[in-house]
Amino acid sequence: MKFEAATIKDIAKALGLSVSTVSRALRDSYEISEATKKRVRDYARQINYRPNPVALSLKEKRTLSIGVVVSEIANTFFSQVINGIESIASKKGYNVIISQTKESYEREEQILEYLTSRSIDGLIISVSSETEDFSKLEALHSKGLPIVFFDRVVDEIKTHKVITDNLSGVYEATRHLIRNKYKRIAAIANSPTLFITKERLEGYKKALEEHNMIYNPALVKYCAHGGLEPEEVRRVLSELLAEKQKPDALVLLSDKITTETLRILKEKNIQVPNEIGIIGFSNSDYTSMMSPSVSIIRQRAFEMGEISATLLFSLVESKRKVTDFELVSLAPEVIIRESSQK
Questions:
Q1: What is the pLDDT of residue 56?
Q2: Alpha-carbon span 196 to 5, nearest angstrom
Q3: DSSP per residue over 266-311, as a string?
Q4: Which residues of the chain have pLDDT under 50?
Q5: Beta strand 249-252 pairing with 295-298
Q6: 10: exposed, middle or buried (C-beta count within 10 Å: 0-12, 13-18, 19+)?
Q7: What's the fold here for domain 62-164+301-332?
Q8: Backbone φ and ψ of 97, nearest 5°
Q9: If one looks up domain 8-50 in CATH, what number appears?
């Protein structure tokens, strides 16, 4: 049997009212008495009536859908951002279409083609680590698609952006390692082309310089796919451990790199923190339950999602062209645990 959703006509027939009266009652029109409004709403709830999104989109010229593009949904940081976005979108009556690039520029392009073919009302995106050509996003933005960037943003496109204060977070984390007597601190970062990588390394360099420690490029390694390819992390970690003077501490500049590095060190029976200290980006609660517990730089992911969605809806619902944009920078939380203390 084919499912048929309840309609305004069903409500009108059951209550002996005209379709226009029911429609205005559901829209809370001043033309309809409070008693009739209550009667209509009560019956609508009783039969589980929901407005037809197709009809609404035709009337309002909106699809009541937004697109969200991240690198990996399973990443705890991105899943928490998505939860924040959906918490705002659901209150607004919008559906959220979530896609993941797996750090692929080609896949990102395909996703953008698909989402815009579905006529989404707006887009929230954190670009992939492979993305260096922003022409597709620039074209969509110039055509009027409301776009908000978060975490991995594009400087060239003038719109709302929500980021973490990456510099201060990594600065505090590196300074903590220095204060705990680590002398040769290495960093494993995401793709060097990403905005977040540049900011995070600036924090690392600043802490070294303030403590009269020489910045050594040989102690900085990059993972083009941000830890999504385990062998990439294994390769750069092996390079660091093969140094004549091995690093005695690691600052890990992405969630996936942190997870993979810990796994590889355990596999190699390298003792943390006695042989090597560890502090890295992570939004996983499991880091507190590991042995040893892991020091982390925790981003305010849920709040980042809420703010991104709120800013997007301000663009979507604006009656005039928006020319003033916000750059919201959220301070991360540096949580010190056993992995970074000798």
A1: 54
A2: 47
A3: HHTT--TTTT-EEEEE---GGGGTSSSPPEEEE--HHHHHHHHHHH
A4: 1-2, 58
A5: unpaired
A6: middle
A7: Rossmann fold (3.40.50)
A8: -100, 115
A9: 1.10.260
